[in-house]
Design goal:
- The chain has about 350 residues and is α/β, with parallel strands linked by helices.
- The protein has one domain: Glycoside hydrolase, family 3, N-terminal domain (TIM Barrel), CATH 3.20.20.
- It has 12 helices and 10 strands.
- The protein has a 5-stranded parallel β-sheet with strand order 6-3-2-1-10, covered by helices on one side.
- A hairpin with a 2-residue loop joins β4 and β5.
- α3 packs antiparallel against α4 and α4 packs across α5.
- The protein is globular and about 55 Å long.
Length: about 350
């Protein structure tokens, strides 16, 4: 739950190596510049173990934001003891065939996903995906609700409503849209040569339409040279002029993981951190590279990087227990409906 006494948060989110904290990790998490922890599959064995791990993380510093990627489909870190969630494109296709039935189920899936994550005392899942895609992108594909922006908006709004009802703030990704190119920004630095008018008709639609109902937004490690020379996550034009000023977004801007190859275009980890923060990211992610995380942390200390007042808005809004969920007729009903889709 939100710690009302904590108003300023560190701006670095990092990861940990195993299913338990090492002493070194405990020491790092107490640093004032560390504001969050993201969990990966290697950190997760079971519900009980995750709860114990999160409890240990919070014992280091109660204000830490704890996150996970629990989108559904092939991006679902919590598996053993958790409801298998379908790829969002399957739900988007259901909306196109039966709008009311599909949207009702999507809202329930948003509620279920968020409830199960919150029951482990994890604050957020980085979801939903707002990219427009069906089969163009090698990394997005069926993670997207649809290749129709209007369908994506309908689906995402329903999903976010369910998340909010459960007590979780939503994070839309990957601004301004990762679905227009095949390249995977985990492995290379994608360049999308489309112009602004095409993006405004298509990829930008969900972000514009949903800017008021999202707690967070995560930019893509993509460069759109027809619009700005800098990759989106390092671009004050994209993050300040478009997202903040034009779209009126006042939530948390999370960098995507700075260890991804798409971020390498601006230099080493300190350069990446500096550019992301200068461009307007409220919280930066440095994952899967403990040495780099330490370098970035030292940079933030040396430069006396300011704390964030926004990050706290992403803390869990409600407490949810597994006992409550397991007795819930609503959860049982949603699980049964999802079973019928398989």
């Amino acid at each position: 739950m939100i710690d009302s006494l904590t108003r300023h948060y560190g701006r670095l989110m990092l990861d940990i190596q195993g299913v338990k904290l090492s002493q070194g990790e405990r020491n790092i998490l107490t640093n004032s510049h560390v504001g969050g922890v993201i969990l990966f599959s290697r950190n997760i064995e079971s519900r009980q173990q995750v709860q114990m791990l999160v409890s240990a993380i919070r014992a280091c510093k109660s204000s830490l934001l704890v996150a996970v990627d629990q989108e559904g489909g092939r991006v679902q870190r919590l598996l053993n003891g958790f409801t298998p969630l379908p790829p969002m494109q399957l739900l988007g296709d259901l909306v196109e065939s039966d709008k009311n039935k599909g949207l009702a189920l999507i809202r329930e899936v948003g509620w279920l996903m968020a409830s199960e994550v919150l029951a482990c005392d994890v604050d957020i899942s980085f979801a939903p995906v707002l990219d427009i895609d069906r089969s163009t992108s090698t990394i997005i594909g069926d993670r997207a609700f649809s290749d129709d922006p209007d369908v994506v908006v309908l689906c995402a709004k329903a999903f976010v409503e369910g998340m909010r009802e459960a007590g979780m703030s939503a994070t839309g990704k990957h601004f301004p849209g990762h679905g227009g190119i095949a390249a995977d920004s985990h492995l290379e630095a994608p360049v999308d040569y489309r112009d602004l008018s095409e993006l405004e008709r298509r990829d930008l639609v969900p972000f514009r339409e949903m800017s008021a109902c999202l707690g967070g937004i995560m930019p893509a490690h993509i460069t759109f040279p027809e619009i700005d020379a800098s990759a989106v996550g390092f671009s004050s034009h994209w993050l300040q002029d478009v997202l903040r000023e034009e779209f009126g977004f006042d939530g948390v801007i999370f960098s995507d993981d700075l260890s991804m190859k798409g971020a390498d275009i601006v230099g080493g980890y300190v350069d990446k951190a500096r550019h992301a923060l200068d461009a307007g990211c409220d919280m930066i992610l440095v994952c899967n590279n403990p040495i780099a995380a330490t370098q970035v942390l030292e940079f933030m200390q040396d430069e006396k990087i300011s704390m964030s007042e926004r990050v706290g808005s992403m803390r869990a809004l409600k407490a949810v227990s597994w006992d409550e969920l397991e007795r819930s007729p609503r959860r049982a009903k949603v699980v049964n409906k999802l079973g019928e889709l398989q």
